[in-house]
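Repro:
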Amino acid sequence: MLEKPGGTGDPPMVVYRVVDAVELARLETHGDYGSNPSRFGKCFALTSDGATAFADAALNAGTTITRTTLPASIVSNGTRFNDPGPNGAGASIFFAEAQLAEVYGTRSPPVVWHGARG
Protein backbone atom coordinates (compact mmCIF):
# COMPACT_ATOMS: atom_id res chain seq x y z
CA MET A 1 0.00 0.00 0.00
CA LEU A 2 1.33 3.43 -0.91
CA GLU A 3 1.56 6.00 1.83
CA LYS A 4 -0.43 9.21 1.50
CA PRO A 5 1.60 12.44 1.34
CA GLY A 6 2.12 13.68 4.87
CA GLY A 7 2.07 10.22 6.44
CA THR A 8 4.41 9.18 9.24
CA GLY A 9 7.26 8.43 6.83
CA ASP A 10 6.89 11.80 5.09
CA PRO A 11 8.46 14.51 7.30
CA PRO A 12 7.18 18.07 7.05
CA MET A 13 9.35 20.77 5.51
CA VAL A 14 8.93 24.45 6.36
CA VAL A 15 8.40 26.79 3.41
CA TYR A 16 7.78 30.55 3.28
CA ARG A 17 5.74 32.66 0.90
CA VAL A 18 5.88 36.45 0.60
CA VAL A 19 2.39 37.77 -0.12
CA ASP A 20 0.89 41.15 -0.93
CA ALA A 21 -2.29 42.47 0.69
CA VAL A 22 -4.54 40.86 -1.95
CA GLU A 23 -3.00 37.41 -1.53
CA LEU A 24 -3.02 37.77 2.27
CA ALA A 25 -6.76 38.57 2.16
CA ARG A 26 -7.29 35.47 -0.01
CA LEU A 27 -5.34 33.39 2.49
CA GLU A 28 -7.39 34.73 5.40
CA THR A 29 -10.76 34.20 3.70
CA HIS A 30 -10.19 31.00 1.69
CA GLY A 31 -7.33 29.32 3.51
CA ASP A 32 -5.07 29.04 0.47
CA TYR A 33 -2.85 31.21 -1.69
CA GLY A 34 -5.16 31.03 -4.71
CA SER A 35 -3.95 31.26 -8.29
CA ASN A 36 -2.15 33.98 -10.20
CA PRO A 37 -4.20 35.72 -12.89
CA SER A 38 -1.84 34.07 -15.39
CA ARG A 39 -2.36 30.67 -13.66
CA PHE A 40 1.43 30.29 -13.69
CA GLY A 41 1.91 28.64 -10.28
CA LYS A 42 3.46 29.64 -6.95
CA CYS A 43 6.99 30.00 -5.58
CA PHE A 44 8.05 29.45 -1.97
CA ALA A 45 11.34 30.26 -0.26
CA LEU A 46 12.98 27.35 1.52
CA THR A 47 14.59 29.51 4.22
CA SER A 48 13.42 32.30 6.48
CA ASP A 49 16.50 34.36 5.52
CA GLY A 50 15.57 34.02 1.85
CA ALA A 51 11.98 35.06 2.44
CA THR A 52 13.16 38.03 4.49
CA ALA A 53 15.62 39.15 1.79
CA PHE A 54 12.89 38.94 -0.86
CA ALA A 55 10.33 40.78 1.30
CA ASP A 56 12.86 43.51 2.09
CA ALA A 57 13.28 44.43 -1.60
CA ALA A 58 11.93 47.93 -2.31
CA LEU A 59 9.54 46.54 -4.93
CA ASN A 60 8.02 44.25 -2.27
CA ALA A 61 7.25 46.99 0.26
CA GLY A 62 4.08 46.24 2.21
CA THR A 63 4.32 42.47 1.81
CA THR A 64 3.89 39.87 4.53
CA ILE A 65 5.88 36.68 5.06
CA THR A 66 3.81 33.56 5.67
CA ARG A 67 5.00 30.17 6.81
CA THR A 68 3.59 26.69 6.31
CA THR A 69 4.81 23.12 6.10
CA LEU A 70 4.56 20.65 3.25
CA PRO A 71 5.30 16.93 3.24
CA ALA A 72 8.79 16.23 1.91
CA SER A 73 7.27 14.14 -0.89
CA ILE A 74 5.30 17.16 -2.12
CA VAL A 75 8.37 19.41 -1.95
CA SER A 76 10.30 16.82 -3.99
CA ASN A 77 7.65 17.13 -6.74
CA GLY A 78 8.28 20.88 -7.09
CA THR A 79 11.00 22.50 -9.15
CA ARG A 80 13.87 23.73 -7.01
CA PHE A 81 15.72 26.83 -8.13
CA ASN A 82 17.99 29.55 -6.79
CA ASP A 83 16.60 33.11 -6.74
CA PRO A 84 19.93 35.02 -6.77
CA GLY A 85 20.96 38.49 -5.72
CA PRO A 86 20.77 40.57 -2.55
CA ASN A 87 16.97 40.60 -2.62
CA GLY A 88 16.51 37.14 -4.09
CA ALA A 89 15.00 34.41 -1.94
CA GLY A 90 17.91 32.04 -2.55
CA ALA A 91 16.91 28.37 -2.32
CA SER A 92 13.30 28.23 -3.52
CA ILE A 93 10.68 25.84 -4.87
CA PHE A 94 8.16 26.36 -7.66
CA PHE A 95 4.85 24.53 -8.03
CA ALA A 96 3.01 24.70 -11.33
CA GLU A 97 -0.69 25.57 -11.34
CA ALA A 98 -1.59 21.89 -11.86
CA GLN A 99 0.23 21.01 -8.61
CA LEU A 100 -1.42 23.61 -6.37
CA ALA A 101 -4.46 21.53 -5.36
CA GLU A 102 -2.16 18.87 -3.92
CA VAL A 103 0.09 21.50 -2.32
CA TYR A 104 -2.90 23.20 -0.66
CA GLY A 105 -4.44 19.87 0.34
CA THR A 106 -1.35 18.62 2.17
CA ARG A 107 0.11 21.73 3.80
CA SER A 108 -0.29 22.83 7.39
CA PRO A 109 -2.39 25.96 8.01
CA PRO A 110 -0.32 28.96 6.89
CA VAL A 111 0.56 31.51 9.54
CA VAL A 112 1.86 35.05 9.32
CA TRP A 113 5.53 34.77 10.16
CA HIS A 114 6.37 38.48 9.82
CA GLY A 115 3.84 41.23 9.27
CA ALA A 116 3.84 43.86 6.55
CA ARG A 117 7.33 44.89 5.49
CA GLY A 118 8.54 48.28 4.37
